[in-house]
Amino acid sequence: MVSGSNGTTSFMTDFLQKCGGYSVVDGGFATELERHGADLNDPLWSAKCLVSSPHLVRKVHLDYLDAGANIIITASYQVPANIPAYMGVAFFLLSLLKRNNNICRLFNSMQATIQGFEAKGFSTEEAEALLRRSVEIACEAREIYYDRCMKDSCDFTGSGRISSHPVLVAASVGSYGAYLADGSEYSGDYGDAVSLETLKEFHRRRVLILANSGADLIAFETIPNKLEAKAYAELLEEEGITIPAWFSFNSKDGINVVSGDSILECASIADSCEQVVAVGINCTAPRFIHGLILSVRKVTSKPVIIYPNSGETYNAELKKWVESTGVRDEDFVSYIGKWRDAGASLFGGCCRTTPNTIKAISRVLSNKSLPSANLNIQM
Q: Three-state DSSP class for 253?
């Protein structure tokens, strides 16, 4: 854990210097777990594998490290620590009824929240242990990667010393909408019943656990609205949390976050938070990234992180990714140079991207003489 605001302020810039000026974040997690045989048809999504298949979680982390990732993100995106006592069944029914006309969807969402965890036999203590375990597995993967480099002498420098790229473990915190497992993190519409205090209390215990889990930083991901960004910022300050964090938002129009709130206002909230060491965009179509980088840079001098999805669109009703127009996964790597020139410093992939994507990004960033676009990267 970083102690003191001065250490937090320099944390990411120091790390970027160690990486050569730019850093590579990992890619899609659920896609890779499924490729290795995991069944993620579950409200816990990829976090299900923390219980059923921790070896697969470790394997995916290692795949991304081998591909060149400097930052690996834990499988805790959809794992809540607990359900605050006052957030009873009636509260969730009210908040969900305000957003759902379909009664079947209502009760499906309920199953994904309160009863879902009870049905699986998880106590609050067990849920908290899963959060810590997600960080432990990522740290284990990092140690295995370093040990493998030492054992196999995978990359000798001219001096005969072994060189392995620096690696951080980022503890993932998904939005309130991700917890509902109904796709509302892609709309940011939580209804009038969900207030700033509601969101702070919902996230408080999970953030405290992850802040003391051994992770190097916290990744607040796929933030869909200004209210939740403000909740995170206030929570970090109220609890005196000094571990560094990044805030990344998602957008479906290249101008606003998915709720319709201004990206400028959202990024300004992140910029004003001392613990936030990077601000950016994730789970967004590649065609919107360049403009969003320019927007974020207008309100912050903090490093900009971007990890777009493959260009497909998530259909919350069907609970699947569908084809859409615009730049696809195999094409967006060729725009890394352009995004770098626009001001981004950390690059990776989100949903539906793979270790091949990350390997190609790493290759681009390791060759700074490459032109800004149209690099014709073979995936």
A: coil
Q: What is the pLDDT of residues 86-112, one digit of tens each?
A: 444 433 443 444 444 333 333 333 332
Amino acid at 23: S
Q: Give, for 23, the enclosing helix (H) or strand (E).
A: strand 23-24
Rounded to 5°, angle at Cα 322 from 101 and 247: 80
Q: Which helix (H) or strand (E) holds 343?
A: none
Residue 88 phi, psi (nearest 5): -80, -175
CA triplet 255, 261, 262: central angle to 5 degrees? 45
Decide: residue 146, CB within 10 A, 0-12 exposed, 13-18 middle, 19+ buried: middle
CA angle, corner 198, sides to 192 and 202, nearest 5?
130
Ranges of residues in the chain whose predicted pLDDT is under 50? 1-6, 84-119, 156-162, 329, 369-379
In 181-291 the beta strands, taken as DSSP E runs, fall at: 217-223, 245-249, 276-282
pLDDT given for residue 163 in this prediction:
55
- Cα separation, 218 vs 12, in Å, equals 12
Q: What count of other Cβ atoms lies within 10 Å of the Cβ of residue 89?
A: 12
53-75 as b/e: b if 16+ CB within 10 A: bbebbbebbbbbbebbbbbbbbb
